[in-house]
Amino acid sequence: MSNHRGYRDRVGLSGIPGLGALLRRRRRREGDLHQGPHPQGPHPSPDRRPRLDGVPVDSLPPIVPEVRRGVRRRVTVVGEPVVHRPCRPVTVFDEALGTLIDDLFASMEVAHGVGLAANQIGVDLRVFVYDCPDTWQVRHVGHVVNPVLEVPTPQEGPWQQRSEGCLSVPGPVADLSRSLSAVVTGVDRYGRPVRLEGHGLFARALQHECDHLDGTLYVDRLAPAARAAVLRESESIRGEVWASWDQRAQELGKQADVGQGIL
Ligand SMILES: [Zn+2]
Question: Consecutive sets of 10 residues in the chain, 263 residues long: mean pLDDT of each?
């Protein structure tokens, strides 16, 4: 999933590429340090430490080791079959799975994303990664294999109406209603159990990434006219978005053999 603030906020109307990454790093620092009460109410847990694979840790580096190890891969776009069909469950927990997770992290970081599913780099396996703040600016980083999503029904729990974007529909964002909270259970790259509890943007990301693994894009949840408008806008500005990713790749020393814009 792209940063919910959207591409315009990342590059700004002044068109300053890299500003988004700067803002994101700043939000991460604020998230790690944030101690005050949130206007949306008390945190369900007083523990504001960042979470790695759902487990509180004392600190996380701004750029996690997976990003350093991983290779930048081209992010697939709407219209490519691999993003429109359900992914296969992972049955083999080997070194290649670890490499896939590293590559997902590197590709997500290059694209200023807060989440990325395996079929977004062309691999139809049920895996996604994330680096995303929640309602209380607690930073959540990790991966999950074979995730199972649990969300309250609209009758049971509050929903949030906020903007959402996707790295496979580069550029625009659109308002979409999602559950305010979500729980994902699954396993990690070694097959150990993982449980993720999301609220706010992180809950949105969990729902967005689980949708990807079922072959559903957020635009598929929009009304037809809104979907068409988002796709038109993406067509017109995706080149500019990809150029900003190329610049971020250079900053990170992540040059791909094939540029993002070449399909
Ligand atoms: Zn997406």
Answer: 56 33 37 35 73 97 97 96 98 98 97 97 98 96 98 87 96 97 98 97 98 98 98 97 94 74 54
Domain CATH for 231: 3.90.45.10
pLDDT tens per residue, range 59-74: 999 999 999 999 999 9
Enclosing domain of residue 58: 48-252
Instruction: Spell out which residues have Cβ within 5 A of ligand 1, the ion.
Output: 1, 166
Please give the positions annotated as active site. Answer: 209
3-class DSSP state of 19: helix
| β pairing state of 181-187 and 159-166 | unpaired
Distance (Å) from CA 213 to ligand 1 centroid? 10
Number of domains in the chain: 1
Residue 26 forms part of a structural domain: no
167 CA to middle of ligand 1, Å?
5
* Biggest alpha carbon–alpha carbon distance for the chain: 49
Evaluate whether 130 touches 119 at the Cβ level (below 8 Å).
no
CA 115 to ligand 1 centroid distance, Å? 7
**CA angle, residues 19, 25, 29, in degrees to nearest 5:** 145
Domain for residue 89, yes or no? yes
CA 192 to ligand 1 centroid distance, Å: 26
Helix (H, G, I), strand (E, B) or coil at 82: helix
